[in-house]
Each structure stands twice: as C-alpha cells, then as structure tokens.
What we know:
Elements: H1 6-17, H2 34-49, E1 53-56, E2 62-66, E3 75-80, H3 93-108, E4 117-122, H4 135-140, H5 146-151, H6 160-166, E5 183-189, H7 194-198, E6 202-208, E7 210-219, H8 236-250, E8 259-261, E9 265-268, E10 278-287, H9 290-311, E11 314-323, E12 326-327, H10 330-342, E13 347-352, H11 357-361, E14 366-372, H12 388-407
Parallel strand pairs: 3-4, 3-5, 5-14, 6-13
Antiparallel strand pairs: 1-2, 2-4, 6-12, 6-14, 7-10, 7-11, 8-10, 9-10
Helix pairs in contact: 1-3, 3-12, 8-9, 10-12
GO molecular function: hydrolase activity, acting on carbon-nitrogen (but not peptide) bonds, in linear amidines
Protein name: Zn-dependent hydrolase
Keywords: Hydrolase
Amino acid sequence: MGLIDPDRLRVSFEEYSSIGATDRDGLHRLALSEADGRVRDRFVDDLQELGLSVRIDELGNVFGRRPGTEDLAPVLIGSHLDSQPKGGRYDGQLGVLSALETLRILEDEGIETARPIEIVNWTNEEGARFKPALTGSGTYVGTHDLDTVLAETDDEGTTVAEALEEIGYRGTDPVGPDEVPNAALELHIEQGPRLEEAGHTIGVVEGVLGMAWLEATIRGNADHAGPSPMHTRSDALVAAADVVTAVRRMAGRLDDDVVTTVGELSVEPDSVNVIPAETTFTVDVRSYDDEVVLDAVDRVDDELRAACDREGTEYDLTELWRIPHTEFAPSVADAIEAAADGSDHPSMRMISGAGHDASYLAELTDAAMIFVPSVDGQTHNEREFTEWNDVVAGAEVFARTTRRLASA
Ligand code: HGY
Ligand code: MN
Ligand code: MN
Ligand code: MN
C-alpha cells in the first residue's frame, strides 16, 4: 500500500461533496447550517469507525484523537468543512479528508507513532454567515472570546450559540487545547494561480497575508426619485459608490501585494424610485505588511469622509476583525519540503493570500501549510477545481509530513 489509498480518498471526497451540493458541482454549506450539521455527522461517524476518541467543544470544533506510543504532545492536523455561499468542494474539505485518509492508512498498516495525532474540523472558518472568519480556531488559541463569538449573529439574527444547538454541536468540552500541540499541519487548495503558473504541484506555505475586515454605513435621505432636485439630494448609494471605487484603486497604489475587496453591499429602502437612504458595505483589505493594512484602514476612513462631504451624507466605520500577517515555523515548512522532495513532487515556497485556521495555530505552536494547485486560480465559487492527481500528490506529502512530525 502507498502512503494513502487514493480510491478511498476519492470515495470520501464524493460522499462529503454530496452533502450541501449545488447543482453545478459546488457546495453551499454555510457554517452551522443544516448541511454543515450533516457533514459533521458524517465526519464524527468516520472518526468513530477509526476507533478515535471524539470530543466536541462548546464552539462545535470536532476533534478525533489517535493515541501515540509515548506520553508526548500531539500533532494537530485538519481544516474546515464549512463553505462559502455557492462555494467550491475543495476549500477546507480537502484538508479535512487528507487528514482523515492519513489516519486511515496508519490504521490499515498498523503503524504506531510516538506522538498522538489529533484531527480537527474547525467551526466557521469562512466567516460568510457569522463574521469574522476563523472563529473556531481563533477561540481555541485564545485570541477570540468565546462568549463574544457565541453571541455573533447572522443576517437573520440567529446567534452562533442557537445555530450550534439547532444542529446538535454545542459541545461541552471547553474550547482550547487539552494539551498544546507540538506541531500543526493543514493542507489546503492555493485559491490562486501561482502554483499552476509555475507548473508546481506542492506549495510550501511560509506565511499568510494579514487582513482587516471593516463595515461602513452611510446615511443619506430617502426622497422621491422624480421631484427631488439633484442638488438637494443626499444619496447614500452615490457616496458608497465613490468609496467602493476608491477602495479598488487603493490596491496596488499602497504596496504591490495589497488586495482590497468590497464583498457585501446593502441598500435601504432598496426601491427603484426612492433615493437610497442608507447603505452598508464591507471592506476586506490584506497585505503581508501589517502597517500597510493599518494605513489602508485610515485611507478608507478618509475616502468615506470625502465622499460624505460631497454628498451631504453621514457615515460610521467599524473594524470587524483584524489578524496580523503569519510567518509559519521554518521547521514544519522544511518538513513539508523534505516530504515533497521525497515523493518527487515539485514544490515551491509561497505566501497565502487566503486566511486559514493554521494562522491562529501558529500563535500557539509550530504550524505550516501545504498547498495544491487551483485550476485557473478559481475558488470561492462553483468552478473551484483541483486536478485529482494533484489532490493525491498533496495528500501523499501531507501523510508523509504528518508521520515525520508525529515520530519525533
Ligand atoms: O477569508 C479568507 O481568506 C478565508 O477564506 N476565510
Ligand atoms: Mn478555506
Ligand atoms: Mn474559503
Ligand atoms: Mn483555511
């Protein structure tokens, strides 16, 4: 038998992908939704079938533990099973299933490791339904406050605590490590075009961009679209539009790696013949340089002030979340590169533009990530795709690295 069983990995991938599947080969499995509940049940069944001891904490993070031969701190492996709205089947899910396959093959071959190995599915990695993102892992490492996270609400006003109860995953275990892991490893799709452009199969991820999420509300006056003279209007959407384009132009001007996105925008009263009274929109800004992210946040505030002066509107700006850039542990990155070299898969060092649970784990222990290519860099949509031979290559390197980390 090889380092993994590709056919078994494929069977699980298709099975998990059928839970919350969209009709265009994507996934609609928002954090703590009914579909997330069903895929969690599948995951718990698979862990129990492997004979692992399973624990679910108060935030619904699901852990399986495989004992080691020595009384040593565990290696923590895994990712997330929640998806974006109409997202892809690989984002997060591939990391959980590669970790599951790694444990399955160890069982098949009766291989014991010195260190225990813990596998995890993190709650709410995406931050699509409940903001901010990465709250399962962020609370586990102590960066997020449990009560604050439990009280976060979605657009319908449902809290995280209520959603956890609804799907039966409001566990009893305290959120946080039983034992601080000795190392942490996450496999993930790159979600960008770099590996494909370079013709490489394995990304050895050395770091992650820092990011800030902002929410801006602009208040103008609802008025009639007909009789209201143009010079008397305070149009909240016109002011927002100015800021949205300014946020787009900010990227690239600040630093070559800065990326800015306005992903959400709502208009009130949202009626064809009423001048928009209020708009609320989000800003996501990222850079490897944390000072640049701070500077960008200030510039968003400047742009809001200027747009509102022009339009006679008012605004509020709230910072929803900020996470500094991540530098992963060279020791784990080196272990990944050695494993890639050992299995003849060309690898390259890189930085992640996407946020990951491993970033919070890096605050607690030596962590790093393995990337596999995203075709056309596509992700966070139903076109997300990774060639199966790249999936297998990534899972093999993941399994090899996990064994190495668990042996020492
Ligand atoms: O926002 C991110 O980068 C991740 O997908 N949660
Ligand atoms: Mn992800
Ligand atoms: Mn994602
Ligand atoms: Mn992630």
